[in-house]
Each structure stands twice: as structure tokens, then as C-alpha cells.
Specification:
Elements (H helix, E strand, L loop, with lengths): L7 H7 L1 H11 L11 H9 L2 E6 L1 H18 L3 E5 L14 E7 L5 H12 L4 E5 L5 H5 L2 E4 L12 H20 L8 H16 L2 H12 L4 E6 L2 H17 L2 E6 L16 E6 L5 H13 L3 E7 L9 E3 L7 H19 L18
Parallel strand pairs: 1-2, 1-3, 3-4, 4-5, 6-7, 6-8, 8-9, 9-10
The chain binds fructose -6-phosphate (F6R).
EC number: 2.6.1.16
Catalytic activity: D-fructose 6-phosphate + L-glutamine = D-glucosamine 6-phosphate + L-glutamate
Enzyme class: transferase
């Protein structure tokens, strides 16, 4: 139920700190160790490459999952859009492990890959918010997202839950392989939950940004580098699906290879700047678009922020920034849709779970 909330989407955005805390609880035992099905641990240890299969927002979570698993657990990862997998099927490694990420657990495109790969004998791990779902039943193993029912068509809390669970999985695998890390996922997720809480209290400021940048525009660009780029992809998907503004996410450095031609006087460009190693170059990209008339908005992180940034998120671990920086984007999309009189929870042409290929 929505309770006092006008829309499920807003309620689900606000629930994110609780979901993260729930995940910390569910994936920890009394000894503060990671609690995970030992068979999943073995499958992760045994594989030589991971293939993440997902669609839409879940695919965007998979992109960060690749960073977690490669950087922390040292296993190569490929992330594939489910509907494209069979056309552009990669050469598989000797011991692949397939990881399906799906909020609903019913996405036909992802299921079709699962069925084909199971026929070839490749093990399947599903990350889903619905444990009894098709993708969960048909996989060998399941990790539950614990996000609670997600009703709004636009996915919000499932996305951050997926990234949190992927971080835990990556660290568990690293530990199982004897890799020493100075990264405690539960501690970092605790910091993330508090940061999220602080942001859900800044709605007025984000509503104002949405009003100022997005009430009448036809289009909008999101730019970022590194993992900020992935968050930009998610931000643009959120915005386009509920506000119908044509929105695209681009890698900061790729913009000048064509897309910059679309920048006109007043075109909104939302730039993410939460990573120290790209802070300088992404700000350079902002200057490039501003020189062509863009109306830019920089979302940065405390410690890396500069005067004039539109919004600053609290400081969290580098790898964890997407879990926090997506919140202002979700809220900006929400308010943009609201200001434009769109049906926030049930956007046109979309269904909550896509059960056709
Ligand atoms: C976007 C959105 C969709 C889903 C996609 C996959 O807000 O909700 O892009 O993420 O249809 O759905 P699941 O995760 O249920 O497989």
C-alpha cells in the first residue's frame, strides 16, 4: 500500500535505506560473516568467467556488478543485454557461470538465455526480488534482493538492492579465494544507507532542479565517466520512461564524437562527478557542452565538489557511489514526470514485467 505517499515510486525511493539495512541483516550471520549458500560460493570459486545477463535497469546494475567482481574477486565478467545474447553470442570460457539479474524473475528475454544455457549445462545463479519466480525456480541457485514488493513500473529500490547484493557476492568470493581486501561491504553499505537517508530529506532541492531544468525541455543528456557513466545510463532510462523526455546517457569522452551536435541553447546536460580519477575530465566535458549553450547540472560527491555544483551527495566509498548518486536522479525524474502531468507509476506502453521476447 502507498500509505501517505502520492505514488509508489516515491515510496519505493524512500525505502532504499531500509532495503540496504535489510540486505546487511539478511546476508550476515551472528559472527558477522557473510551468510551465503555454500553452493553459490563454490560455483563462484569454480568458474573462470562470469556472464551477467539482464535487461533494462537490471542490466545497468550488472554493469556495476562487473566492476565489483573484477576489482574485488579478480574474475573476468561480461555483461550482456538478454535480448541480444543469442545473436551476438560470445565465445564461452571453459567454466562459465551465468548470473541472471531480474527484479521480477519473469523477464522472458533473460529466461530464454537461461533455458538455452542450462541445456548446454552451464550453471545459473539468479538474483531476484521474487524468490518463487520463474528465473529463480529454473536456476541452480538464487540470491534474494529483499527489496520488498516493487509496484511502480520504474525500478528504483530493486536497482540499488541488486548492486548491494552484487557487492556482497563479490566480497564473499574474494574471501573464499583468499584475496585480502580492505573493503568491508557491510560497513560500506551501512554508510550508503545513511547517505541515502540524508538524500531523501533533500526532496525540495531536487524538485526545484527538476522544475528548473526539465519542465519544458524536449531532450536531456546524462554524462559521466567510469562508473558514473553507468549511473548516467540508469538516470536517462528513469527520466525517459516516466517523463517521456528523450534522454540519453553518454560516456563523457564519447560525446564529442557525434552527439555533441545535438546540444543547443538550453539543452539540459546532467553530469555525474563522483570519481576522483575522472573529476577533472568530466568537468572539462561540462565546459565543452556549456560552450555550445547547454544548461548543465553537476552532481558531485562531498570532497570532490566545486562551487556551483547543483547537488552534492555525501561521501561514500568510490565503488559504492552508484547506490547513492542514483537517488537524486530518481527523484529528479520523479518530479519531472510530476510537473509534466505524467502517470508516474504506470507510464504509457510499459508493463512491470515483460513476459514476451
Ligand atoms: C526500468 C525497468 C525495466 C526493467 C527491465 C528488467 O525502470 O523497470 O527496464 O528493469 O524490464 O526487468 P526485471 O529486472 O524484472 O528482469
Amino acid at each position: 500500500e502507498k500509505g501517505t505517499y502520492p505514488h509508489f515510486m516515491l515510496k519505493e525511493i524512500d525505502e532504499q535505506p531500509f532495503v540496504i539495512r535489510k540486505i546487511i541483516q539478511e546476508y550476515q550471520n551472528e559472527k558477522d560473516e557473510i551468510k551465503l549458500d555454500p553452493e553459490i560460493r563454490e560455483a563462484m570459486k569454480a568458474c573462470d568467467r562470469i556472464y551477467i545477463i539482464a535487461a533494462g535497469t537490471s542490466y545497468h546494475a550488472g554493469l556495476l556488478g562487473k566492476q565489483f567482481i573484477e576489482k574485488l574477486a579478480n574474475i573476468p565478467v561480461e555483461v550482456h543485454v538478454a535480448s541480444e545474447f543469442s545473436y551476438n553470442m560470445p565465445l564461452l570460457s571453459e567454466k562459465p557461470l551465468f548470473v541472471y539479474i531480474s527484479q521480477s524473475g519473469e523477464t522472458a528475454d533473460s529466461r530464454s538465455v537461461l533455458v538455452q544455457m542450462k541445456e548446454l549445462g552451464h550453471p545459473a545463479l539468479t538474483l531476484t526480488n521474487v524468490p518463487g519466480s520463474t528465473l529463480s525456480r529454473e536456476a541452480d541457485f538464487t540470491m534474494h534482493l529483499h527489496a520488498g514488493p516493487e509496484i511502480a513500473v520504474a525500478s528504483t529500490k530493486a536497482y540499488t538492492a541488486q548492486m548491494a547484493v552484487l557487492a556482497i557476492l563479490a566480497v564473499d568470493t574474494a574471501r573464499a579465494k583468499g584475496i585480502k581486501l580492505d573493503f568491508d561491504p557491510m560497513q560500506e553499505l551501512g554508510i550508503v544507507a545513511s547517505a541515502m537517508e540524508a538524500l531523501t530529506d533533500q526532496k525540495e532541492q531536487l524538485e526545484e532542479l527538476a522544475r528548473n531544468y526539465l519542465s519544458t525541455t524536449r531532450n536531456c543528456f546524462f554524462i559521466g565517466r567510469g562508473i558514473d557513466y553507468y549511473v548516467g545510463l540508469e538516470g536517462s532510462l528513469k527520466l525517459k520512461e516516466i517523463s517521456y523526455i528523450q534522454a540519453e546517457g553518454f560516456a563523457g569522452g564519447e560525446l564529442k564524437h557525434g552527439t555533441i551536435a545535438l546540444i543547443e541553447d538550453g539543452t539540459p546536460v546532467i553530469a555525474l562527478a563522483t570519481q576522483e580519477n575522472v573529476n577533472y575530465s568530466i568537468r572539462g566535458n561540462v565546459q565543452e557542452v556549456e560552450a555550445r549553450g547547454a544548461k548543465s547540472m553537476i552532481i558531485s560527491m562531498k570532497g570532490l565538489d566545486k562551487e556551483g555544483d547543483a547537488f552534492v551527495i555525501p561521501h561514500v566509498h568510490d565503488l559504492m557511489t552508484p547506490l547513492v548518486s542514483v537517488l537524486p536522479l530518481q527523484l529528479i525524474s520523479y518530479y519531472a514526470a510530476l510537473h509534466r502531468d505524467c502517470d508516474v507509476d504506470k507510464p504509457r506502453n510499459l508493463a512491470k514485467s515483460v513476459t514476451v521476447e
